Amino acid sequence: MDAKFDIQDLNVYWDGNLLLKKVTLRIPSCQILGVIGPAGSGKTTFIRSLDRMNELEPGFKMEGRILLDGEDIYAPGYDAVTLRKKVGMVFALPVALPMSIYENIVYGPRLAGIRNHDQLGGLVEQSLQAAFMWDEVKDRLEMSGLRLSGGQQQRLCLARVLAMEPEVILLDEPCSGLDPISTAKIEEALTALKKKYTIILVTNNTKQAARIADQTAFFLMGELIEIGPTDRIFTAPIHKQTDDYVTGRFG
Known about the structure:
Helix content: 25-40%
Largest sheet: 6 strands, mixed
CATH superfamily: P-loop containing nucleotide triphosphate hydrolases
Strand order of the largest sheet: 6-7-8-3-9-10
Shape: globular
Order of helices and strands: EEEHEEHEHHHHEHEHEEHH
Radius of gyration: 18 Å
Strand content: 25-35%
Low-confidence stretches: none
């Protein structure tokens, strides 16, 4: 299967401290990669490297290569804005904009130059459908996004990313503060979305990774300890550290 991302010998430093060490892996297209590991293991640093968000922070330095569809995203001349249109991010804390549901969705497309009302309306419906949210809000699109529940706001954030029509979706613990019903809706949406998108999901919930990830990567102290098909990682891990973590004995 073709690799969407090909990460080669990735080292990441902050203020001279090595946070990721020689990380090498290939991420297939149209699958969900679950990224697990204890706090401070480098999971968030890893996915923020994939859309170059780390470089916005002072003291950041990287070594190695990250290829997206065969192109080095850190090569001189590779445009970060273009990259972030291809690679969307959903954060742990839902950040609905202080405007209507409709305006939340069309904010990005408008910045990208789309002005046609019918086209914007189609993007709103398409994105909310894909986030499994359309039926809940189709009659109140003018309501403030801030009035939605936490779970709905997180799906609104997902819909906002989808409206930009990316190729990759990064999610950094998107269900960490959500109830089980909201979590199930996010997982249902992601399972459907992988038919079209490459999805990289950082989660502290090993059961969530076991439920929806096609492959799982286990990070520990900045190193990629193990990666493989999720069913093998959770039933017959190669490394004892992985086994200890997924069975709750880690620590």
